[in-house]
Design a protein that fits this description.
heterodimer; A: flat; disordered C terminus; B: mainly alpha
Chain lengths: ~190, ~180
Amino acid sequence: MKQVDIFVAFFRVGMLGYGGGPSSIPLVYKEVVDKYKWMDSDEFGDIVAIGNALPGPIATKLAGYIGYRVGGIVGMLNALVASTVPTIIMMIFLLNALNAYKDESWVKGMAAAVMPVVAVMLAVLTWDYVKKSWESTLGWGWTLLFVVASLILMEFANIHPAIIIFALLLGALLKKDSRSGDQGKKEKHST
Amino acid sequence: MNIWISLFLGFFLANVLGYGGGPASIPLMYEEIVNHHHWLTNKEFSNMLALGNALPGPIATKIAAYVGYDVYGWLGFSIALFATVFPSAFALIFLLKIIQRHRQSLVVKGMTLFIQPVIAAMMFILTWQMMKESTLSIGIVQSLVIAFISFLALEKWKIHPAFLITASFAYGGLILPHL
């Protein structure tokens, strides 16, 4: 029964959340705290705070953790599948249908007309991230410096973003505090 | 075999470096998908992103699963999805088990802070690329007018992105070919 609840809860979150993971946090709250009472709102707040501090999509981190808390490893898999797979199937189906007609002029028109819309959505996201770091303790000076510096490094020096992010993470690690720096944040070796 | 590894590494990297939820990983995934591995063209990526935004659910997993499927069928689908979802979900479970009570770890907080500007810069580059490609295909006037209307729709009239994307698909499918 519990697994059915987990599935239904995260299926609803996946199907009702528009605009990527972060916009579905309130939906998760509604299911997990209000409806099924798997945890109180303080605990939920903690999980979101720590989840946000880790990299990766937030919706699946929440689903994975809450599924695990409520129903063990099976619950985790269950919640992850429920929140992602239904919309993915829709996506694959629609894109493949479009690809079948990709040489038709109307499909080309659709692809072309949506591009500026995508550009605007990305511009809005750009602004969100600038604002987020602007309003943090970094302030506008450092934010601007970091944005411009990473722009130059990526566009003109052709440095892979991973290198810049690693360097900044390293800087943050060394600068902030030195106590207990080994909190599961170092398993990022890859060649 | 090689493709398994590149799919796994590509999506693992893009998501483990994206701080700030799924959308933060979009430019990182673009880097892997379009620039590095050439799995999709710029235009295909934009199409996918538009459709992904028009559908509900987390965006990073939709992109990963679609590209994985496109590149290597259902196996590719599973690998890309696994690489996107599991490392960060496990990290959260692990971390929460260790620091039951420490709510605000300074180290972790400081880290995310430093990453935001880089994500912003990457988003900006991606925006620029989409706009450039768009002006090449439908001209600068069309591109700017559509962009301007989209901006008003999203930010001023607060129209749901799914409607906006559907509307632009309709415009492109029905009107654009006859201009």
